[in-house]
Amino acid sequence: MEIFSERKIIEMLRQAGIRPSIHRLSVLEYVANNRTHPVAEEIYEFIASKYTGVSKTTVYNSLHTLVEAQILRPLEMGSNTTRYDLAIQKPHSHFKCKSCGKIFDMNLPADIDKMAAPGFRVESTDLHFAGVCPKCIKITENK
Amino acid sequence: MEIFSERKIIEMLRQAGIRPSIHRLSVLEYVANNRTHPVAEEIYEFIASKYTGVSKTTVYNSLHTLVEAQILRPLEMGSNTTRYDLAIQKPHSHFKCKSCGKIFDMNLPADIDKMAAPGFRVESTDLHFAGVCPKCIKITENK
DNA sequence: TACTATTTTTGTATTAATTACAATTTAGTT
DNA sequence: AACTAAATTGTAATTAATACAAAAATAGTA
Asked: Do A50 and A118 share a structural domain?
């Protein structure tokens, strides 16, 4: 998996016209380099362990700014808590394992937008699968 | 759009082994016959206007029971509030208009499940589009 | 019909995620 | 250094949803 250097992260922010403040930088660095589709809480915990006295609001602010700039992409995977994914990468779909809860990146057909009815302007597409991942299938079978 | 008679709704519940209590019946009737993908609040308001003294918990209970029985299908369309859709109908995708907020039913490719990586057991698929609907495109153009 | 067990409903309290907002701090610019 | 704008903080509020125990309704059976 591609790892983004701090330099690269700063560049991403600069290009979007966003000041690379220390916390913002950290939020993006975490989401970009830990491709676990984390929720705000998880990101907050990381930042809080790195710097003392960080407010949760700051994390939310940063996330909103980054989503606004289309650097991050909010994801809803059936738990009513928003997850975050790096937007600047090949379009892909997601698979959530009902057993272990993990979220996997999957393929996305290139022409998927054509599935929408004519006359509608598609700006974003989300394809989500839910089911059981190979590892969990194996675990269930060996019972 | 197909309208489900009370008789039909009761039959659906019976077949799933669910007692057709008056509120449950009402919840399902509302979701089945008002294909607006309503949220719990909207359903509650309908029920509350029909019968006095209905608890919101009852609506949530009914919705859970109906989802459990796979009669309804929970939907998350980017607002962290769950919407409900009738499950017993042709599989379809959804389009949310960013301008008017309306949700439209769209086509769903029959072989979409094959897009998941091999080895994964797909149990449900959600395809969501977001963008602008034809009506709202027109409104924006005439400015 | 009356009794009992089970299901359904209620109502209140609680949790969890997120937002609002005013005050403070920090950083960039003249 | 002084000024301006942006970022951060902290607390309070909001909103959706859940937990749970008590009360009411219902079905099945004696």
From this structure: no
